[in-house]
Amino acid sequence: MAKRVAVVLAGCGVFDGSEIHEASAVLVHLSREGAQAEVYAPNIPQMHVVDHVKGQPTPEQRNVLVESARIARGNIKDLATLDVKGLDALIIPGGFGVAKNLSTWATQGKNCSISKEVEGVLRAFHAAHKPIGLCCISPVLAAKIFPGCEVTVGHDTECEQWPYAKTAEAMKELGCRHINSQVTEVHVDARNRLVTTSAFMCNAPIHDIHDGIGKMVREVLGLA
């Protein structure tokens, strides 16, 4: 039987939704490993819409589920319908949508709240001892929900290669343990069954990001 993995998206586009390359890499690696991806997204308005040419917000309004359906080629379900009992693992790609639509991390940092649906799904997989894969900014969700967990978002010292390293410091303040790692590496928190990798938190060649996500997928499936 193929392992069934829930992939939760947060829209379509790095600045206001799921990072498209990360989401695609997750789906490609799941397919390569013979797993069945089931894509979900919350049926909610986006926090805002960003013009990805100008990098500026626009007056438009868009829906997270509708936009995520672009990545899923229409094969997507409302997150409210997710049933952990029929699934083996959960993966959440990164992108600013995680910090804007799935949580309020973008505006409130460590003091953020997480969408009730998203928190419920994460807690359900955790309680069922089923593995959770998180990349890029999405490990902040685990840091907020699971005190004492171990995660990585890359490095904790800001530099040109690691422009978002302050995220690691904020996560430490939440009581989690941050593990410095390279973009092609993952960290496995065996106790919490969490697998994390930095992806686009690093200024790295896209193939390195793709490879790191591949390792995350394989580790998640190995725990499933």
From TrEMBL:
Transmembrane segments: none
Gene3D superfamilies, sorted: 3.40.50.880
Descriptive protein name: GAL3B protein
